[in-house]
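Box S1 | Example of a co-folding query
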Amino acid sequence: MVSDNCIFCKIANGEIPSATLYEDEDFRVILDLGPASKGHALILPKKHAANLFELPDETASKAIVLAKKVASTLKEGLHADGVNLVQNNGEAAGQTVFHFHMHIIPRYQNDTVNVTWKPGELTETDKNEILGLF
Ligand code: 5GP
Ligand code: ZN
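Box S1 (continued) | Returned holo structure for zinc ion
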């Protein structure tokens, strides 16, 4: 339920204070301490799950609905031009805190936030391998 050495468990459950935008029985939504942009928020489930794969389906469903609400409020209230939802799983994917969280990053025209990549090429071999997984 709660992991002893997990900072986001402590924040989500109110043991460590945080700038809380919203709270209910399942989640706490906080401001990121190192924001990519003005309004960068994090959705934290109160029950520990290291990543998306450990997150119960019901919590995952609620998280995206909550993300939609928080993103709308931030976008309107801060007059943002767009919003990125970012959710990292595993060190290779940039995850640094191993308690599931969803980033909500308001975007402003000509800001310097970087969540882009250089497009590669979809090869026939890769395509067939991946199609074969489903
Ligand atoms: P990740 O790289 O794991 O997807 O994102 C971790 C995020 O948590 C980072 O954006 C980082 O700034 C934020 N963060 C790390 N420690 C704390 C903290 O103690 N409080 C808050 N509010 N944000 C934190
Ligand atoms: Zn945790």
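DSSP finds three helices and five strands in the chain. The first strand starts at residue 20 and ends at 23.
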